[in-house]
Amino acid sequence: MDRLTKEQRHRCMSAIKGRNTKPELLVRKFLFSRGFRYMLNHPRLPGHPDIVLRKYRTVIFVNGCFWHGHEGCKYYVLPKTNVEFWRNKIERNQSRDWEDRQKLVAMGWHCITVWECQLKPKVRQQTLEALENTLYHIFLEDRRIKCYETIEECSMVAEPDAGYGVNSK
User: Fold this and answer.
1) pLDDT, tens digit, for every residue of 92-138?
2) Distance CA 72, CA 56 (A)
């Protein structure tokens, strides 16, 4: 049973922001302090990713565990009231997230999801350093010199000894 009235619950839920959340600000502040430059909520990309790093062809989604249904997380617990509504809402969010990631990958973007629970004080530094290492790895992999295999067998189109030298007249 909900302790708040319907109007109070509505006011609380409508006050929750979709942009510039605390977890998102933590990630942005860390990235900026490490020299990464980014754009926010790019309107032309599917899903309007929270952070877009064009140099790295990478987008970062900073997801709330409840709103995006982080399976196995202690912060993802369905409310006891209006369960069917919340289950449908979170499933729609998950399917939309999956479709957006598929579209971005098809466009050649790398997608990274950082969950709210991964930014809790105990594991925050480890998560942010792993994010930094992942971005450097993506950068180096995308710019790695590709080695091409040499083909042993070549077929000649021209005649073997045409005699194009000075002495052949």
Assistant:
1) 999 999 999 999 999 999 999 999 999 999 999 999 999 999 999 99
2) 30
The distance between the two most distant Cα atoms of the chain, rounded to a whole number of Å, is: 105
Per the DSSP assignment, residues forming a β-bridge with 58 are 53, 110
Give the percent of the chain with pLDDT over 70: 84
Q: Which two tokens stand for residue 42?
A: 């790019």
Name the residue with tokens 């209006």: 82
Backbone phi and psi for residue 118, each to the nearest 5 degrees, phi listed first:
-80, -5
Q: Which of 112, 71, 126, 77 is nearest to 94 (CA)?
A: 71
Secondary structure of the chain as H, E, C letters: CCCCCHHHHHHHHHCCCCCCCHHHHHHHHHHHHCCCCCEECCCCCCCCCCEEEHHHCEEEEEECCCCCCCCCCCCCCCCCCCHHHHHHHHHHHHHHHHHHHHHHHHCCCEEEEEEHHHHCCCCHHHHHHHHHHHHHHHHHHHCCCCCCCCCCCCCCCCCCCCCCCCCCC
